[in-house]
Amino acid sequence: MTMTPELSQANVDPAELAKFAELAHKWWDKDSEFKPLHDINPLRLGFIDRHAGLAGKVVLDVGCGGGILAEAMAQSGATVTGLDLAEKSLQVARLHGLESGVKVEYRCQAVEELAQAMPAAFDVVTCMEMLEHVPEPASVVAAVSRLVKPGGWVFFSTISRNPKAYVQAVLGAEYLLGLLPRGTHEYSRFIKPSELARMARGNGLDAVELKGMSYDLIAKSFHLNDDASVNYLLACRKIAA
């Protein structure tokens, strides 16, 4: 992959971009490697809408990929911008939007760059399944905090770092069950909820609710619970000045 000077300086891992570029054409195939994202999307959407009330809100989806969550939020009545550095994924997202008729603005831009250009521009910022794929997650947390309005909402989802998470999210999901392609995750980049909450507080975000997201082997479905030891969602609110 040829990197532009701007992209080479961004908070991005070229290997991660290449990984998602190879799979970009499968984003909307619900039986592909992206099936887990389609399966958890209603859970993510409900969690976000319950706190923020998406209808009429101006929303930014950071690390939007092919637009699965972005389109769902737009269908819930929000004005949505999707942000990603994987151009092939954005091309798929734009094409799907033309087919579905769901309007989302997609931008290929680093979140830190957008934060400089558009501070306090959004009512809601989401950053789902993205922090564990970047070299400097704290930089992303700082940027999304700058992008959201005082009193606005920020939502993160990522994976905790502990032996159970390694067994379930890496060995189980990638090697045993085949829910994800092998090599999707790098264990050392997983983030404990306490670490993410600390990053949030350091950037003026108040952690409001933490929820775990677990996979039921028998029902073959995901559900929210209070066990945040593997996959989890964190709802934060920007502290008003």
TrEMBL record:
<feature type="binding site">
    <location>
        <position position="63"/>
    </location>
    <ligand>
        <name>S-adenosyl-L-methionine</name>
    </ligand>
</feature>
<keyword id="KW-0831">Ubiquinone biosynthesis</keyword>
<comment type="pathway">
    <text>Cofactor biosynthesis; ubiquinone biosynthesis.</text>
</comment>
<feature type="binding site">
    <location>
        <position position="84"/>
    </location>
    <ligand>
        <name>S-adenosyl-L-methionine</name>
    </ligand>
</feature>
<protein>
    <recommendedName>
        <fullName>Ubiquinone biosynthesis O-methyltransferase</fullName>
        <ecNumber>2.1.1.222</ecNumber>
        <ecNumber>2.1.1.64</ecNumber>
    </recommendedName>
</protein>
<dbReference type="GO" id="GO:0010420">
    <property type="term" value="F:polyprenyldihydroxybenzoate methyltransferase activity"/>
</dbReference>
<keyword id="KW-0808">Transferase</keyword>
<dbReference type="GO" id="GO:0032259">
    <property type="term" value="P:methylation"/>
</dbReference>
<dbReference type="GO" id="GO:0061542">
    <property type="term" value="F:3-demethylubiquinol 3-O-methyltransferase activity"/>
</dbReference>
<dbReference type="Pfam" id="PF13489">
    <property type="entry name" value="Methyltransf_23"/>
</dbReference>
<keyword id="KW-0489">Methyltransferase</keyword>
<feature type="binding site">
    <location>
        <position position="128"/>
    </location>
    <ligand>
        <name>S-adenosyl-L-methionine</name>
    </ligand>
</feature>
<dbReference type="InterPro" id="IPR010233">
    <property type="entry name" value="UbiG_MeTrfase"/>
</dbReference>
<comment type="similarity">
    <text>Belongs to the methyltransferase superfamily. UbiG/COQ3 family.</text>
</comment>
<comment type="function">
    <text>O-methyltransferase that catalyzes the 2 O-methylation steps in the ubiquinone biosynthetic pathway.</text>
</comment>
<dbReference type="InterPro" id="IPR029063">
    <property type="entry name" value="SAM-dependent_MTases_sf"/>
</dbReference>
<dbReference type="GO" id="GO:0102208">
    <property type="term" value="F:2-polyprenyl-6-hydroxyphenol methylase activity"/>
</dbReference>
<feature type="binding site">
    <location>
        <position position="44"/>
    </location>
    <ligand>
        <name>S-adenosyl-L-methionine</name>
    </ligand>
</feature>
<keyword id="KW-0949">S-adenosyl-L-methionine</keyword>
